[in-house]
Amino acid sequence: MIAVGGDGTQRCALDFIKLGVPIIGIPKTIDNDIGVTDRTFGFDTAFTIATEAIDRLHTTAESHHRVLLCEVMGRNAGWIRAARRHRRRGRRDPDS
């Protein structure tokens, strides 16, 4: 069996492994919170979309002299936010 998914999928796959079913686990989650993985399918896409959206919000907020708040997905992990902050480090804006 091939288990493609995030934390819940991989935990379920572990139950099958305990029953003797051979499993191949492929991490796919925007949270990027699967142990022993550096990056997961889905994270790069979520990061890119969040970055583009926040850049647009920043431009809009600046042109209207407003402060806008943005929340990004990520169940228990803040990797999308952390990666974005790391990428933009050194720039002066409300997000850095």
Task: Describe the fold and architecture.
This protein has 96 residues and is mainly alpha-helical. The chain has one domain. It contains three helices and two strands; from the N terminus they run βαβαα. The chain has helices at 7-18, 43-63, 79-88, and strands at residues 2-5, 24-27. Helix 2 (43-63) packs across helix 3. It is rod-shaped, with a radius of gyration of 18 Å.
Short account of what is shown:
By secondary structure, the chain is mainly alpha-helical.
Helix/sheet category: mainly alpha
**What is the average per-residue confidence, as pLDDT, rounded to a whole number?**
80
Major sheet: order of its strands?
A: 1-2
What order do the helices and strands follow?
EHEHH
**End-to-end CA span:** 43 Å
When the domains are counted, the total is 1
Q: Bin the helical content.
A: 40-55%
Report the count of strand segments: 2
**What is the subunit arrangement here?**
single chain
- What sort of overall outline do the alpha carbons produce when their principal axes are compared? rod-shaped
Low-pLDDT stretches are: 92-96
Report the major sheet. 2 strands, parallel
Fraction of residues in β-strands: 5-15%
Q: Helical stretch count?
A: 3
* Rg from Cα: 18 Å
Layout of secondary structure:
Layout: E1 2-5, H1 7-18, E2 24-27, H2 43-63, H3 79-88
Parallel strand pairs: 1-2
